[in-house]
Write a structure and sequence with these properties.
- With about 280 residues, the protein is α/β, with parallel strands linked by helices.
- Helix content is about 45%, strand content about 20%.
- α1 crosses α8.
- It is globular and about 50 Å long.
């Protein structure tokens, strides 16, 4: 597949926010990791859940934040009945720390979103900034925070991703996934030039094919953006992923020796070995 700039421009329907309404110097969370994709359906939320579990298993106190404002589904993938969620925070009924839910089976904490809430998805910039500041304060209680962002390049995704120390862009070998991942990377690079973007290739038929997918996206980033986002890891296609999702549990619990689980654990170890992502 050839990624052409013209196609990327066509896919970018987003107009970047003017500087006058850009986030006001939100401090980057040194222990925050945003997981984004550009395109939906690439396994981003599954990866976020599995990464949170992997980090927890490596003795990292971890919080998983459902940043898919409006189409949240972390609680659904894990079969949880969460009493309080992010909607209660946005409405002013509860503070952020009051909606933290401990997931016993994975030994990590979750802040659930609220699916189908237009109010969350269309949150004004000022409210997003306050949410980001509150999240920064809460982050001091954890070793690692994972922000599971929504698909696409909408305002909430950009602002919350921009406050993370690292952004992991998840993509597959599908042409639309590569195109949308490139569009996301381009927009974040323009709006947040200091963003540290890493790539994760999911659903690869083999490590070699995953490497080829990475090189395709890397070539586009290098040719058009003059950046070289590193490869953080490749996750091999594994039928047990779907089974764990259907059974609403983490694959590390259900199939700890599966290839997909081992690949995500390797990514977690790589993150911990990176001095730039350690406190």
């Amino acid at each position: 597949m050839s990624l052409k700039e013209e196609k990327m421009e066509d896919s970018e329907e987003l107009k970047l926010a003017p500087k006058s309404i850009s986030p006001r110097s939100l401090h980057k969370g040194k222990n925050m990791l945003a997981v984004a994709s550009g395109k939906g359906g690439v396994g981003k939320t599954w990866f976020s859940i599995t990464l949170a579990h992997a980090l927890s298993s490596l003795r990292q106190k971890t919080l998983l934040f459902d940043g898919d404002l409006g189409l949240a589904n972390i609680d659904i993938q894990l079969g949880l009945m969460v009493k309080n969620d992010l909607g209660s925070v946005v409405s002013g009924a509860l503070s952020l720390n009051q909606v933290v839910y401990h997931y016993d089976k994975g030994n990590f904490d979750i802040i659930a979103g609220r699916s189908g809430s237009a109010g969350l998805a269309s949150m004004p910039v000022g409210r997003l900034q306050i949410l980001g500041e509150d999240l920064n304060l809460l982050a001091t209680n954890y070793d690692k925070i994972i922000l599971d962002m929504g698909a696409g390049v909408e305002k909430p995704v950009r602002i919350l991703s921009g406050m993370a120390e690292k952004i992991l862009v998840v993509c597959t070998d599908e042409p639309t996934s590569l195109t949308d991942a490139y569009a996301f990377i381009k927009i974040m690079t323009l709006q947040y030039p200091k963003s540290k973007i890493n790539l994760v290739i999911n659903q690869a038929n083999s490590l070699r094919e995953g490497q080829r997918t990475y090189e395709t996206l890397l070539k586009a980033c290098n040719n058009f953006l003059k950046i070289n986002p590193p490869l953080l890891g490749i996750i091999r296609r594994d039928t047990r992923v779907r089974d764990s999702i259907r059974n609403q549990t983490s694959i590390i619990n259900r199939y700890p020796a599966s290839e997909a689980a081992e690949d995500v654990i390797a990514i977690a170890k790589r993150l911990l070995a990176d001095g730039q992502f350690n406190n």
